Amino acid sequence: YKTLRLILGDQLNPSHSWFKHKDNDTLYLVAELKQETDYVKHHIQKICAFFSAMENFAHALSCAEFNVLHLTLDETQNDKNLPSLLNRIAKKYHCSAIQYQYTDEFRLKEQLSLFKQASTYNVTAVDSEHFLLPFSQIKERFSKNKHVTMEHFYRAMRKQFDVLMEQGKPEGGKWNFDSNNRNKFSKNDLVDIPLPKVFNNDVSTIIDRLDKHQVSYLGEIKNQRLQWPTTRKQAISCLEYFCENLLINFGQFQDAMTNQSEHNTSLYHSRLSFAINAKLLHPLYVINRVINEYRQRPNEISISQVEGFVRQILGWREYVRGIYWINMPDYARKNQLQAKNKLPEYFWHGSTKMNCLSHSLSQSLTTAYAHHIQRLMVIGNFCMLTGINPDDVDNWYLGVYIDAIEWVEMPNTRGMSQFADDGIIATKPYAASGNYINKMSDYCKSCQYDVKQKVGEKACPLNSLYWNFMHTHRSKLEKNPRIGMVYKNWDRQTEEQKAALLKQAAAYLVDLESL
Ligand code: FAD
Ligand code: SF4
């Protein structure tokens, strides 16, 4: 072969221009690598989802008569990184040129850029043709260490890509319907939530391989069947299911959480993040399909459901990617609140008396999934209030979630949820007491703690931890106009009340394991 083309596990984009023409001089390489299973301890479902999707992609290419080499851990056990793999394969197949797509992760970009500089092969890198905002435009929209408001970015993207626009104005008369998107479930709402769309992918051979190569992982897969979509066809059917059954209520229940639906962890959410991040689906394809559903059922589906969904993909997803690339590698070291505590053990088994946390952790560990508010306002909030080191928090999220790839995981976790990034993403910490959890969920009803109590044995720990957090970081946060009111409320309390709250929090903080 003349050219070797590398396809990474999150570059399974069938519409890439590489596949517009077939040529017999090109060999495509899809390879499982130990460095990818081992850079953090991953959930077994996450490793299986990537390996299975890679295998399926290689198979589809091969059926379409491209020359493909799919290598498993059996064949790559001596390749310690991408350069060693590429050198070995290029030599074996007598290639003179090597091509790769720009990576989404800094870690791999470093590896491949160094390889490119030092290589004797003719090495070129091409766009991955996935994101809407061209990589070259990131530096026009974002500046290092500077806050960029997501809402401004999102509006610019709506205009640039002409999404939900009517003669230069936002469709429905408003850019943002967030205020309609904060409903809690009533008992009746819960009865009707459709079951999630799941698949039955046999991944037993992949699990055997992981065990054979002593890959260390967490979590389980029931009956060795993976429920996540790992082909483009499955990803499309997941999107179709979302449009037909879930979109109608997506926006209004976007932030709601519940204990009640054990079989229904994703509620009205789409479960598309893995498929989109692996590039099985293009973001614009997803957006257009959702808008098309809305156009066909205008009397049933309201603009606020659709806008809420579009904002996540056209807004947040593209935004966090911009923040990541403009700020890496320094972003990975940010710890503005100097959080140093260790992650409590229950993050690995879910067993804590705090029902909100126990439910969200157990669900994450069982399914490799939690929706946005569970990640942000339950697990993330707990970590921030208890001062857990953001490195530990990042590693936990990166390992546990099915969709976790550093470019999207880190800004969401370290930035949005931990406020460790000097306010680059959020203008204020997403800190909440038990009151917020009680407002958005039914977790508190079956909790051993009492959400209404602030001190005492039964008091919800989040109440005193919240005030302790605000008190500890007062000098940093007080001048923030969005937080001023909080300190007015704090100062209004008597000295005894304040002392009791701080004492209560201190007792939790010396023994987080006991919660
Ligand atoms: P839906 O609620 O149906 O949303 C639709 C799509 O919008 C998602 O599939 C996703 O592609 C996109 N999206 C929504 N919110 C965000 C966001 N904040 N950032 C980027 N894209 C978004 N998402 C990841 O893909 N990988 C991660 O590692 C990840 N880590 C997170 C960590 C924290 C602390 C928080 C608060 C959020 C994180 N998110 C991450 C964003 C979001 O929680 C997930 O994308 C979402 O829960 C995936 O489920 P879904 O596909 O059902 O999403
Ligand atoms: Fe969580 Fe507190 Fe409610 Fe218990 S009482 S579920 S700890 S918010």
From TrEMBL:
Gene3D superfamilies associated with the record: 1.25.40.80, Deoxyribodipyrimidine photolyase-related, DNA Cyclobutane Dipyrimidine Photolyase, subunit A, domain 3, HUPs
Record-linked Pfam families: DPRP
Entry superkingdom: Bacteria
SUPFAM superfamilies in the record: Cryptochrome/photolyase FAD-binding domain
Protein name: Deoxyribodipyrimidine photolyase-related protein
Species whose genome carries this gene: Pseudoalteromonas aliena SW19
